[in-house]
Amino acid sequence: MKKGALLIICGLLSMGFIQAQTPLTTPKSTAQTANEDILLLKESAHSFGKIPQGRPVTHIFEVTNTGKEPLLLENVQASCGCTTPEWSREPIAPGATVPIKVGYNAYADGHFNKTVSIFYNNGQTKTLVITGEVYKLPPTSAPENASVQFLKQTNQ
């Protein structure tokens, strides 16, 4: 009888039905502290609205280190070549705020929705989003109005 119960328990353990219980609360380890989110964004999205084709635009996103140790932005990467981020490679001091400048070249007309990923703190990421609508400029300046020339001649 004891062997049968022992075999059943061993079988259940090997199949994963019975698992060791873990306490509901565990003390905070240094590994958990390293994974805390210490990067604060003032805003995570920006709309440029309507912009003319061929005229690049930029926006500055503000990033704050809310931790107690310096924070290094490991990489800031755009989703495509039409978007370019610029950021400091220097560590961000605790409590300090630094800019991330994001530019969009506005080459193609139409709606755009681009992302910029911030990689920091050994594996954490945040995403910035820029959106807008690029409109085509007329190929030439406005045509000359013949009526204006006529009025100039008659008023002399």
Radius of gyration: 30 Å
- Span between termini: 122 Å
Largest sheet: 4 strands, antiparallel
Mean pLDDT: 80
Give the proportion of residues in helices.
Answer: 10-25%
Structural class: alpha+beta
Task: Estimate the strand proportion.
Answer: 35-45%
Shape: elongated
Q: Could you give the order of strands across the largest sheet? A: 1-3-6-5
Low-pLDDT stretches are 10-14, 16-33
Order of helices and strands: HHEEEEEEEEH
Number of H- or I-type helical stretches: 3
Q: What is the tally of beta strands?
A: 8
Please tell me about this protein's structure.
- The chain is 18% helix and 39% strand.
- The chain contains 3 helices and 8 strands.
- It has helices at residues 2-15, 30-34, 146-154, and strands spanning 39-41, 45-52, 57-65, 73-78, 83-86, 97-104, 110-120, 124-135.
- It is elongated and about 75 Å long.
What is the structure about, briefly put?
This protein has 156 residues and is of the alpha+beta class.
Observed structural traits:
alpha+beta; 4-stranded mixed β-sheet; 8 strands; 39% strand
Task: Give the helices and strands, then pairings.
Layout: H1 2-15, H2 30-34, E1 39-41, E2 45-52, E3 57-65, E4 73-78, E5 83-86, E6 97-104, E7 110-120, E8 124-135, H3 146-154
Parallel strand pairs: 2-8
Antiparallel strand pairs: 1-3, 3-6, 4-7, 5-6, 7-8
